[in-house]
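Reply to dn_fold:

You asked what the input looked like. This is it:
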Amino acid sequence: MNMIDWYKIVISVPPILQYWSDKELMKAKNEPLKIKKYPCHSQSVEMAVKLVSEVSCKVYGYNQRHGYILSTLKSRDKLRKFKTKCKYPV
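and this is what came back:
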């Protein structure tokens, strides 16, 4: 079994926290941060969460995960798309 060498991995900051300093985040204990509103319950977000969860089980590291996700999405774009169910070939 291959173990992850945590000393070789670059750990990145979660994207939602990248705009605040450590000092501002510590102040957030007492007063709330002003965070942009992001869609979190749309179908596309649910699909993205599922994809990222699946990819995280297969590869590790930001670059590998990002590349795998991009290649998966590119592959899905090549599939034919139908607007209604009656257009699907049976």
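The CA atoms of residues 80 and 86 lie 14 Å apart.
Hope that clears it up.
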